[in-house]
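Researcher: Re-running this chain for the archive, since the previous output was lost when a drive failed. Same request as before.
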Amino acid sequence: MRSIKVEIHTPTEWRKRARYVLQESITISGLRIPQGFATDGATIPRVFWPIFPPVGEYFLAAAAHDYALIEGWCWSDAATVFDQALKELSVSAWRRRTMVAAVRVYGCLSLKR
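Model: Regenerated structure tokens:
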């Protein structure tokens, strides 16, 4: 697993999520994410945190996905870079497939709102 230096901003309310600010630039799956970019990790409902915590072996993939969306990429392309980053990080196939499917479903549902 690759390590990355982050500054953690803890929320003031229990409903809110921590923010992780990159302390250095990273490149994953050909996408350069600049120092100072803030992400909440993987946006996963709390009920699933025992299996899929918001930060873990896939943190950099989640950061790449978030950055792609901030940069204006469409959901489909952001999901593809997420999948590629998960492969690059050697995330297990079952976890990768589950997470990518969830990202794609959420993307489709959010586009219909």
